[in-house]
Please model this.
Amino acid sequence: MVSLRWFVLSVLHLSLVGSEPTSKQTSPPPHPEGEQPPLGVDNLSFPWSRLRLPRYIIPLHYHILLHPNLTTLSFSGSVQIQIDVQNNTNWVVLHSKGLNISKATILDQNLAHLSDQVLPVLHNPSHEQIGIFSPRVLTSGQKYFLYVEFGATLAEGFYGFYKSTYRTSTGETRTLASTHFEPTSARMAFPCFDEPSFKANFTVRIRRSPEFISLSNMPVVKTIPVNDDLLEDQFDVSVKMSTYLVAFVICDFKSVTGTTSSGVQVSVFATPEKIQQTHYALEVAVKMLDFYEEYFNIKYPLPKQDLIAIPDFESGAMENWGLTTYRETSLLFDPSTSSVSDKLWVTMVIGHELAHQWFGNLVTMEWWNDIWLNEGFARYMEYISVEATYPDLKVEEYLLHTCFAAVGLDSLNSSRPISSPAENPTQIKEMFDTVSYDKGACVLHMLRHFLSEDVFQSGIVRYLHKYSYANAHNQDLWDSLANTCSEEDFISGKHCYSKAQASKNAYLFAGEHLDLTAMMNTWTLQKGIPLVTVKRMGSSLQLKQERFLRTVLPTDPLWSTMQQGFLWHIPLTYKTDSSNIIHKHLMMTHTDSLDLEEDVSWVKVNSDMTGYYMVHYEDGGWDVMTNLLRKNHTALSYKDRTQLIHNAFQLVTAGHLELDKALDLIGYLQSETHPEPLLQGLGYLEFFYRMFERMEESDLTSILGAYILRFFRAVIDQQTWTDSGTVSERRLRSEILSLACHLGDPSCVERARQNFEEWLQSNGTLNLPTDVAEMVYSVGAQDDHGWASLLHIYNISLSAAQKGKILFALTCTKNPSKLSKLLELGLEGKVIRSQDLSSVIVMVARNPRGHFLAWNFVKTKWDKLVQKFQLGSFCIRNILVGTTRHFLFPEELQDVQLFFESIKEQASQLRTTQIVLDNVQKNVRWVQRNLMPLRSWVYKRTE
Model:
């Protein structure tokens, strides 16, 4: 956890003059009727023992006043919360973390004080709660006002109300203050009921120096002078929303502004010197808001949408309603330094955050166990929105990799169900993972294709309309998609089935009788991914489903135990050579069969990978697929070809397929022209090459490298060192030339060195082609002068995209001392920002020369890393998984186990530690089973 110095400014009361509600009691009695005698804190014990707040007090409206001081890096403030009391009580329990509470009082509906005493405030730091004691009983059915004054330092790190800095081109460091509250950090900025179901309205006032601006969820309605050096911005009342969506920023940024077709004002903010990099984001945001208003059939509820690039930001972006915050790499686009992949990333992130304005903000999950209702939908809407608004970016090619990433985690025994229990802040942070985002998106993709686009879209529109400004559960989504509703809705004439009627109806979707709730519960309430084994028997296709596991082999004693209780309702799709029709079938049992036409020569199951399941072709089935790809690979779509390659190599890891079979499958790639299957197959060969590099098996490394270059010679030679071509062609160019140079291809290395020298000598007047810039930098970083020059340019560059490419290149050096320097610079947080430290560690670990260097750094600096990034955060998870993912041997596994034992108290709180152990155990098994066959295969490739 980030350590905070707690103090209250001596000027707290002065800065808050006039902010406390005035009591209408002119001379309150010593002890008002019903009030108990004065109590000190020592006479009271904390009244609440649970992590979740009591439900008998409901917040209705927050009036927040904040005065951040960017010189002293502190803030003072007050909050007045209108509360609805639903049980008689003397206590108000709410959240507060790191705040110094200087005053608390409770007022009635007429703003009269209930007590003339200073109210006792008790703290429960382990639960991040405070309890405020009222000597007079708060009566059920009545509304009151809770008023609290507080102060704190601006947080170090990336959560709560925290400081950020940026440096101008003249070397001046400037400071700003920003917020990031999701999931449980609003309580670091003001006392609040910090749970998603406690939705309320917010009225925000911010005091600032005239040289700054302030932003919040709503527009400023009035700015008044407080004194000669202080202004107060008063923001409009917000819509009803959860605390984690509240946001405010105090900065000196500039902006560009546009307007949507429905009149929403859209502004993009950035540091003054980067304002020219905001124009693409503005174009995207305006277009996306227009798209979503039409797709969801609900007007964007706020008058404005601000997007702001924060220099220090841990995650990619955050969907605060009306004020979305971003990393600079996720929002800024510089045509001279940003590649086509950078452009797609910016477009997808904006699409994700703006989708949240409906999914998450307008309709919010009841509790964090269902965060996938926010994140899975937003991840999936990235693809739908970008495909609709920027079809030339070919975003559909990326959805495959989203699902491959989900399979990677979900096929470990340490995976979890999409909907999982999470109570404390560490557990809640860990819910923001591959399962919630990627698996959630892929399950929705499967459902959309099975129900049809129209049924899916109309269902989610019903869902959003019905639960607007409220909270929802999984079941609410299934009811909306199946067009069921409550008895009350049914009686009122809604066009839907009643609950009772729904149970009597068989819903006919895609030719199948479908109980949508029963089906989707198998995908959201149990962990893992199914493996469908396919076996041809004449005109019959025999099907078997089981749990797909890469950590336990079918021959292991534990196998049968880990299969027990797993069954999915799988919406199967398949196609054959006899027609272009995609057939659909719902598989709800462990075994099943399909009737085929007699003359069918091949069957491809899971068409275009619209289904979230693996497929294994038994009894020569893989040979059929291999022969098909060799003879006529275009008989299958590029998505089918890519999925076949992915499935084959994953089945090798799981013990269902021999490595030779998977390697034979990709033998057709010399004829492949589409980037996706080409890069998928090439990726596995590159993985084997890098594995041999780490093992320091120079003969095998040399042979395999020469084979890859020879095998892909034609496609390598076709590449131009430009930014011309389609998005797919440009992505292929970037990947294929990067690998060619890494493998030491003489013509590639020489061309890259030449380009690097010309670029250096131009002193910034020459721009490298953006699609090959990272590779050129990586080659240039191999000598001392090039590395030092890149580090200098990194330090002064105003392009976040360029800095990212240079940083990757710097981690490609073969010099361990330079790698160590990068790790130390990241930890220091000045030249390399702390937000990039986890990426630096993982990139150094990817380098064979930095493999153990990065892992040892994590072990020795663990306490500092946790202090910077909070225990359950994405960065900590990324560091642990990223530094160990390449471990291959039992002694490396033992080293990881010993480290986790040494941090047992922290490790026990993290699901990630078991994921790491599962991953390394999987690698160890892979090497034990497949290293010899791989060596044999490679040696056969010598000329």
